[in-house]
Amino acid sequence: MSITSRQLRGTGRDRSPAIALTVGDQPAATTLPLAIGFGLLRALAATAAGLILACGVGVLIWAVTPGSPDAGALVRGAIAAFGAANFLPPSIDGIRVTATPLLLSAVCFGAVASAGNLRFGRRAPLPGMPAQLLVAVLTGVAYGAFTSAAVAALAPPGAAAERVERPIAFGVVAAVAGLTLRGKEFPRAFRSWAPPWLRGGLRAGAAASALIAAGGAITLTAGLVRSFGTATDLASTAPGFGDGVGMLLLGLAYLPNALVAGIGYSSGVGFLVGGGSYSPLGSAGAELPGLPLLAAVPTNAGVSWLGLLSTLFPLAAGLLAGWLLTRTTRSMTGRLLGAAVAAVVVAAVCALLAGVAGGGIEGSSWARLTVPWWSGLLLGGVVGVLAAAVGGVGVLTGRVGAAGGSGSSAAASHLTEPIAVVADEPAGGGDAPAAEPAESVEPAESAESAERVDADEPAELAADIEPADVESAAAAERPEPAEFAEGAEGPGVPDDTVAGADAKDGGDPAVAEDGDAAGGGGRHRRGRRRNR
């Protein structure tokens, strides 16, 4: 046994050590079969967690609804909703609901991403990125297979579509995302080969996408606040308390879908609900379902000035992306490439959100509840153009940013200024030969000109002197300690030692002056010899 990295972990006031022991000098190794087995167990645990959550919601609705005839029916309906969160559209009385509840999907995505993280407690991580990627893919496939089998066995007959490829694809994407974002080897390998403009473009695209999503959330919130009275009236139409709770849970489950609709609205393209279309430039209304969440849909037929304000969020996202690129990339070419990468990221994220949030209720007048996918292309183009413009302006005005900003150029200009070095007087106080002309960074400059520069230098230039220069100058002008003064002997130092040291210097005062002109090193060396 040997003690590993977590050896001494203080607990309490006495800091008593908590010893963690492992077998051997290294943590236990993780083989590929063992990692695959762990991945399958985690996939099964993620499926079980989703089923337990869905069944808990069903039991809650049954408990608060006194008129519910059977708890089993509600539980089976909740399992069908779990299948809908994994892109298995449920069927209710022959009517298929193709709109995915994205809030439940986000919960399932997080569970699968945690399963694909491939951390096995105190064991060493699985070596090699290909092996880790293989285990993550197998974990996602297992999650999709377990989910499809559970929904087919526990949901009402015919309630879930038999589309096993959808939950498998969902599980693979979630597991690989968990490995990529929360792992260590993939980010380290990416940073090792990716150029700065690619890393900066991805970072700028992610920040711009987050700002656009925040704009969609603010737009949705403003719509709900404006129509709060209508939303409360729709909520009051529920027959009982249990029905009201069910309506509330339904609104929460589809809240991210409404957020995506807000993103489409702020892009200027708008969104579709049944036969109606809604955008800041004009809306064509249609009959809507009686859900409180849909009260945020605008009702004006003309141009909405409040809606036009929401289009400022994509513009701000483009400016933010350009500003981030100016801080990470120096050249014009790098910034243009980074702007293109940011545009691709924004377009891909927004188009993907529009695709997964779409759907509707087949066989009814609300078969379309969606955002046009090409709104993502429009948002990506806006972000790319503005980011490139900001980056180009930054290059033209010389605002380089973190890659090589004005601070480094100021330091470089300070280093090019001549620094005069003035020789000190001899310690003995006697007459000494005239000192050599003081040297500076620039050759062929006399001591008189250096003194004139020192005398005429403005006081405000003193702020440019580095602290290290001030300390060295102060050390050179500091008076010599008494024990190192000329003619004084250190404690317990024989006279012959001092004489020998003077003999080595040759007794020439010019030698002492040369040493003092070099920074006072000669006197200190003589003092050290005397101490010896």
TrEMBL record:
Residue ranges, compositional bias (Low complexity): 424-447, 471-501
Keyword Transmembrane helix applies: yes
Spans through the membrane: 40-64, 101-121, 133-155, 204-225, 245-266, 303-325, 337-361, 373-396
InterPro entries: DUF6350 (IPR045931)
Key word Membrane present: yes
Keywords carried by this UniProt record: Membrane, Transmembrane, Transmembrane helix
Region (Disordered): 424-532
Biased composition (Basic residues): 522-532
Name of the protein this chain belongs to: Uncharacterized protein
Gene source species: Nakamurella aerolata
